[in-house]
Design brief:
single chain, about 290 residues, alpha/beta, Rossmann fold, seven-stranded mixed sheet, four-stranded antiparallel sheet, 11 strands, about 35% helix, binds adenosine-5'-diphosphate, binds magnesium ion
Length: about 290
């Protein structure tokens, strides 16, 4: 059986939203005083409205340190808006987001965002794109000179430091986006459909590289995707958003240990969880099809 917390709801939506920029560094240590894993991100009764449109409301969600929480839901249900509110780019109309106990009211140290369309500056080369967040924080020159090559190497872009984004494939551009987000050594990494604009084979390579990077330095991560397989492969939990306004319909414990590999994709548990998430999301797609036919 798939373990979950239940809810109800139907509906789909339209629209997307992304932005540009990178996060910054800072934040408290990974453990609370008792040595147990700390809550990094706490979203409480969160709601966002745009005019008459209530995108979501009543969202309660906690992301612990060293936990990857995947978020899936129909297009337009507010996944990007939710990430933007955690990184302080979108203001909540109700509820709160706290990072390490501090309320988020604007761009927050220790939180980095990786964008769907890479969000690189087209006129900056790879080195300067990766250095951007550190420079924004006014990090010392020596620190920048140490960290930038380290993260460029980590994402497999060594040798491409002077390339401009347009000279790189989509996969390589997103490697640069990832290096930029990681270079500030965030406590919380938010990823908004990071691999959706990348071809299928490269996407698979990047998924496993991302897991490898995370396994070497596990931090709290919110991973938005429209791929059910990707959500289950990456996530320790999968949050399913549904309804109008959307809300958390179900939270599924994936229950597959790390490290994960291509073998994970063949495991019975992986099949079971993906099938369950598929059922939850397809109910709405089928209902929407009936509405228009
Ligand atoms: N800045 C904005 N102004 C008005 N409406 C917006 C804005 N950003 C997003 N929306 C609307 O909010 C809803 C949720 O958008 P979004 O968070 O991008 O959804 P998702 O990422 O799940 O596809 C959509 O209907 C979208 O059109
Ligand atoms: Mg989106």
């Amino acid at each position: 059986m798939v373990r979950s917390t239940a809810g109800t709801g139907t509906g789909t939506g339209t629209g997307t939203g992304t932005g540009t920029g990178a996060g910054s560094t800072g934040g408290a240590g990974p453990h609370d005083a008792g040595g147990s894993v700390a809550d990094r991100v706490v979203v409480s009764q969160a709601g966002v409205r745009y005019g008459d449109l209530t995108v979501f409301d009543g969202i309660d969600l906690t992301i612990k340190d060293r936990e990857i929480v995947s978020i899936v839901g129909p297009s337009g249900c507010g996944k990007t808006t939710l990430l933007r509110s955690v990184v302080g780019l979108t203001r909540l109309n109700s509820g709160t987001v706290t990072i390490d106990g501090k309320p988020v009211s604007g761009p927050t140290p220790g939180v980095s965002l990786v964008f769907q369309h890479f969000g690189l500056f087209p006129w900056k080369n790879v080195y300067n794109n990766v250095a951007y967040g550190l420079k924004l924080q006014k990090a010392p020159k020596e620190k920048i000179e140490q960290l930038v090559p380290e993260y460029i190497e980590m994402v497999g872009l060594a040798g491409f430091e002077t390339s401009l984004p347009h000279q790189l494939s989509g996969g390589m551009q997103q490697r640069a986006g990832l290096a930029r987000a990681l270079a500030v050594e965030p406590q919380v990494l938010l990823m908004d459909e990071p691999f959706s604009a990348i071809d299928a084979q490269t996407r698979e390579v990047l998924q496993f590289e991302m897991l490898r990077i995370w396994e070497s330095r596990p931090i709290a991560m919110m991973f938005v995707t429209h791929s059910i397989d990707e959500a289950v492969l990456m996530g320790d939990r999968v949050v399913v958003l549904k309804g109008r306004p959307s809300h958390i319909h179900e939270v599924i414990e994936v229950g597959i240990p790390h490290p994960r590999s291509r073998e994970t994709l063949k495991s019975p548990r992986f099949q079971e969880v993906t099938a369950h998430v598929w059922d939850l999301l397809m109910q709405d797609v089928i209902a929407a099809e009936r509405e228009v036919s």
